[in-house]
Amino acid sequence: MGKDYQKLEFAFGKSSDQSARVPVRHPVVVVGAGPVGLTMAIDLAQQGVPVVVLDDDNKLSIGSRAICFAKRTLEIWDRLGAGQRMVDKGVSWNVGKVYFQDELVYSFNLLPDSGHRRPAFINLQQYYCEGFLYEAAVALPNLDLRWKNEVTAVEQHADHVQLTVETPAGDHRLQAQYIVACDGARSPLRKMLGQESKGRVFRDRFLIADVKMKADFPAERCFWFDPPFHRNQSVLLHMQPDNVWRIDFQLGWDADPEEEKKPEKVIPRIKALLGEDAEFDFEWISVYTFACLRMDKFRHGRVIFAGDSAHGVSPFGARGANSGVQDADNLAWKLKLVLAGKAPDELLDSYATEREYAADENLLNSTRATDFITPKSEVSRTFRDATLKLAKDHPFARRLVNSGRLSVPATLVGSALNTPDRDPFAGSMVPGAPAADAPVRVGNNADWFLSRIGGEFGGVYFSDNGRLPAAIASALGALAQGAIPIRTLVVVPPGAKVDTPPAIAVVEDTQGMLAQRFDARDGTYYLFRPDQHVCARWREFNPDWARAAVARATCNA
Fold first, then answer.
1. Most confident of 3-12, 324-333, 471-480
2. Angle between helices 320-339 and 35-46 (to 10 degrees)
3. What is the greatest pairwise CA distance in the chain?
4. Model confidence at 1, in pLDDT bands (50, 70, 90)?
5. What DSSP letter does each residue of 174-217 carry, written as one string?
6. Across the strands, what pairs with 445?
7. Which of 223, 319, 537, 545 has the least CB density, counted as fewest CB within 10 Å?
8. Cα 333-543-496 angle, rounded to 5 deg
9. Closest Cα partner for 240 from 423, 457, 92, 79?
């Protein structure tokens, strides 16, 4: 059966900070030990930044909550060493199906081409996600995770932030050069700073019923508009591990949340979907109302907001937890460089700019999905229903159907950290894009491209014939010795052998997919940020251009 993460309780331990005569100052304090806070802390600690995590509770999340984790999120967790556990436990899926009334309208594949290490999505209960991240976190010697530590006050100063923390052993104060607020949608830190999230609250209610049952439904996302078993509303079905199924029922704004959670109200709804003879047990029942909103600015001095504390979306499209993990991915490397004195404080402003842009993209897609799923006028409903009818036979109409356009990472096309192209390239790997994966070989071992880059700046040089001129090899090697190193990877065709200095690794593009996805030919050079986003690219390698691009990407230009 494995560990029951729902029953874990973590003991409070009195920190040595509480006995200090003056407040102890830490480089970074992360507030909140959910998926975003733990991802943030692990990333910092693995990059050598000591980090303290404060959480006001001593348990993992109750109920399955967020369950859909996207390919990009899994790739981030791969870089942190936690991705494989997530995939091994989770239910992988790529296919979604859309129904209208009693008919299948169409199905779609979110990852139709091969050559990807990770699926489009996995479904995994949030408590498993948090449990796996917790176990990765406590294995790190420079990560101090403190349960039952509630932040009750925050004071900003020119060179630090001071927190008042309430614990079972009494109150104490501690300081940090930077605070990362990952304390959720109701964020106490946001309120302490006098900030708020603004946006739109949707006048509708949904019932989540997580039920345990044995069923032969495939591992697909099924969405029904106006089905015969739940007329004039919508229903969503997802498979989770341990024979648990997530069912979302739209209820309407007038539904009484407390009444709708009662088993005698929920059971008939589920039997209408599954059949009168269906046998199941309840795992978790909740009724929710949702909103699309965000803070105006994600950075406030030395307090930086990430995840639900910074932005909130409706659950359609799985954009909440996934965008929060991508917040952490964007921020960690920037904090590391600023704390090390290798980048100015201005670099942290780019976190806010980039992730505010990503949040706006998510909010737009989430709002559109919610408006399509829950039309609030007869005209809107008529348009939606006509679109669904057309979609069965006409592909153009399928592009208008929105059952929750699923989470994709933002391409940061307008970021000031990007170096604009000098040369023409085809495809989607533009500066600001998260890198695509592809199968490679290292020596005699099969591997994946994304496992060879990330965590620091990376340069990738493509050689069509396996030759690497001595002058280029020397210049590539020198980049690894800079104040902000660029680690080089040389990509060669299958079977090619090339001699390189020890600082330069070589991978074989076993199926040619890497060169295809990056529109690369002999001599093409890509520069990647530590978060695996494309930073710059050229048709020929020039070390001065590479250094200038790193300077630009770290606000040192």
1. 324-333
2. 30
3. 76
4. very low
5. EEEEEEEE---TT-HHHHHTT--EEEEE-S--EEEEEEE-----
6. 442
7. 545
8. 95
9. 92
Q: How many CB atoms lie within 10 A of CB 425?
A: 17
CA angle, corner 456, sides to 452 and 459, nearest 5? 60
pLDDT tens track for 211-225: 999 888 889 999 999
Mean pLDDT of the chain: 93
Please give the angle made by the CA atoms of 19, 24 and 30, to the nearest 5 degrees. 110
Place of tokens 């939606």: 384
What are 152's two structure tokens?
A: 């009750």
CA distances from 201 to 274, 381, 531 (A): 32, 20, 33
Q: Quick check: 247 pLDDT over 50?
A: yes
Burial class (CB in 10 A: 0-12, 13-18, 19+), 549: buried
Q: How far apart are CA 352 and CA 163, in angstroms?
A: 22
- Show the tokens assigned to 131: 């449990």
Gap between the Cα atoms of 162 and 364, Å rounded: 36
Give the residues across from 492 on adjacent strands. Answer: 508
Which one-letter amino acid corresponds to residue 167? Answer: T
List domains and CATH numbers for the chain. 16-88+122-197+294-365 (3.50.50.60), 439-553 (3.40.30.10)
Non-local CB neighbours of 18 within 8 Å, separated by 6+ positions: 167, 169, 170, 172
Tokens of residue 252, six digits? 């309407």
Q: In 483-500, which positions are buried (b, 16+ CB within 10 angstroms) versus exposed (e)?
A: ebebbbbbbbeeebeeeb
Q: Are 490 and 505 in contact (CB under 8 A)?
A: yes
**151 CA to centre of own chain:** 25
List helix spans (H) across 399-483: 470-479
Q: Which two tokens stand for residue 50?
A: 């000591």
Q: How many other CB atoms are found less than 10 A from the CB of residue 469? A: 11
Beta bridge pairs of residue 99: 104, 224
At 126, which amino acid appears? Q
CA 362 to chain centre: 12
CB 9 within 8 A of CB 59: yes
What does the block give as tokens for 52? 């303290």
3-state percent helix, strand, coil for the chain, nearest multiple of 5: 30, 25, 45
Q: Between the CA of residue 369 and those of 171, 227, 318, what are the distances in Å?
A: 45, 18, 11
CB contact burial 426-457 (16+ within 10 A = b; e otherwise): eeebebbbbbbbbbbbeeeeebbbbbbbbbbb
- Of residues 127, 119, 4, 6, the one with CA closest to residue 70: 119
